[in-house]
Write a structure and sequence with these properties.
This protein has about 350 residues and is of the alpha+beta class. It has nine helices and 20 strands.
């Protein structure tokens, strides 16, 4: 059902071989792929034509699959590894410490979320989500971090003695990810013929969410029950998501033509970037917000009747427009508008409010 093609990337004279997924569906002739795009060609472009070429590649991919792998993105490997290490150390803390940092309010969207508290889904019905959460909770824990200078909502940090360098590391990573987000949004603006700086003053308030994620080891049988996954099928809420994932795997993306799920196989050195619901809405669905989920990879046998899935880590940077911004149909994205204008803050908070218990 799934075909794989080898992709070769030239990086500083080194050939990087990886696997990019291409789904060949038995029920549709339309193939589905997540391309690897070398972002250094945009960031270091020597001409406007070179920059436009990469912008067009990105927008074309976002129109079709809604997902890309971004290579040569400018974030050093050591920076990502350090963020993963500090995240791992945080989740290894005793529950009594993490629980003092518990997530409290969708308007804040900050703090620790224990296993089973969140149930991601496409539903917006609180009662339906509550039933899903009771039947098949998401098997993950997370810690949510926002801009640290917010006058109303404060981040929830562990004591420095409990998690040395955690706060400094995550604040630096937040800024690094925001910088990349700005560059990717500039490429999208160029690809939509809006002018490179179109989004700059609409995303400069950094109303983003840095989410650290830990998927603990779990008996495989618990993830084989009806409707159960490490994270259920959903689309993201904002403009873009920058996903840093380890090599365990488990992310799957839905082919919108066949409704089949394909594996977004981890590609070393890349970031998975996908379109969120607000950017799809902003673009009048020219750019695609695609369903995805996290499932368990093959488990390791622990006895004659049971297997255990391995621990998985990821870091997601959920990019949002300024919460004061109005999201309405962009120029060059068709007419009539499919959606009425919406305030970013109202939209994001409304989606979060029904996701958590």
């Amino acid at each position: 059902m799934f075909a794989f093609r080898a992709v070769v990337i030239a990086r500083k004279g080194i050939t990087l071989r990886s696997l990019a997924t291409t789904a060949a569906s038995s029920s549709s002739s339309k193939a589905f792929s997540i391309p690897i795009i070398d972002f250094s060609k945009f960031q270091r472009a020597q001409s406007s034509a070179e920059k436009q070429e990469t912008a067009d590649e990105i927008v074309t991919a976002f129109k079709t699959s809604g997902f890309i792998y971004l290579s040569n993105h400018g974030i050093p490997r050591e920076t990502v590894q350090n963020a993963f290490q500090k995240s791992k150390e945080f989740f290894a803390l005793p529950s009594e410490i993490k629980d003092t940092l518990a997530w409290e309010d969708p308007r804040s969207n900050r703090g620790y979320v224990k296993i089973g508290r969140e149930r991601v889904t496409q539903s917006k019905d609180p009662n339906e989500i509550a039933k899903l959460r009771e039947k098949a909770p998401d098997y993950k824990e997370s810690h949510e971090i926002g801009r640290d200078w917010d006058s109303e909502w404060k981040n929830m940090w562990p004591n420095e003695s409990d998690a040395p360098e955690f706060k400094r590391t995550m604040l630096n990573f937040f800024q690094t990810a925001h910088g990349l987000h700005v560059d990717v949004m500039r490429s999208i603006a160029l690809g939509l013929n809006l002018g490179e700086s179109f989004f700059d003053d609409k995303i400069n308030e950094q109303c983003h969410n840095l989410r650290l994620l830990s998927y603990p080891p779990i008996k495989s049988s618990l993830l084989e029950e009806d409707g159960t996954a490490r994270a259920g099928a959903h689309s993201d809420y904002g403009t873009l998501t920058l996903l840093f994932q380890d090599q365990v795997g488990g992310l799957q993306v839905q082919n919108p033509h066949t409704k089949e799920y394909i594996a977004a196989t981890p590609v070393p050195g890349t970031i998975v970037v996908n379109v969120g619901d607000l950017l799809a809405r902003w673009s009048n669905d020219v750019l695609r917000s695609t369903l995805h989920r996290v499932v368990a990879p093959a488990g390791k046998k622990i006895n004659d009747t049971e297997k255990e899935t391995p621990q998985r880590q990821s870091i997601a940077f959920f990019c949002n427009p300024n919460f004061s911004a109005e999201v309405a149909c962009l120029p060059n994205c068709g007419s009539p508008a499919k959606y009425p204008p919406v305030n970013t803050g109202d939209y994001i908070v409304g989606r979060l409010a029904v996701t958590y218990t």
